[in-house]
Amino acid sequence: MRKPLRVRIRDGQRGASLIEFALVLPLMLVVTFLVVDFGRAFFMRNVLQQAAREGARQLAVGASPDSIQARVTPLASLSGAGSISFDLQPSYGNGQVRSVVTGQLRWLYPGLLRFLGASGDSMTLTGACTMRREY
What we know:
By secondary structure, this protein is of the alpha+beta class. It has helices at about 15-60, 65-75, 110-115, and strands spanning about 80-95, 95-105, 120-130.
């Protein structure tokens, strides 16, 4: 029968892992918070892009501006962005139409971003789409 292995800790190494954890934890928290904030930004940008694509599609098939607004506004509001606006350009050039949806992203951790050199508490995100007119 084998005896269980016993790990001997040297006298000078007793609190080393606690010190290492205390040094690494703040860095890991900063990285985690930045990933969350930038993940939200990419999600909002993607939703605004989808809303712009839907607006351009409706405009390309000849829908009225009121019905386009009724379709685009709920889609863009899914992003959670503040102060959403959209611009429809029915004659963008060469038989094309264009839809631009803009929203305001408020950072969850603006102090953290300012510490890293960014300025402002918010960022403007834009989704745009151009399609060929079909009517």
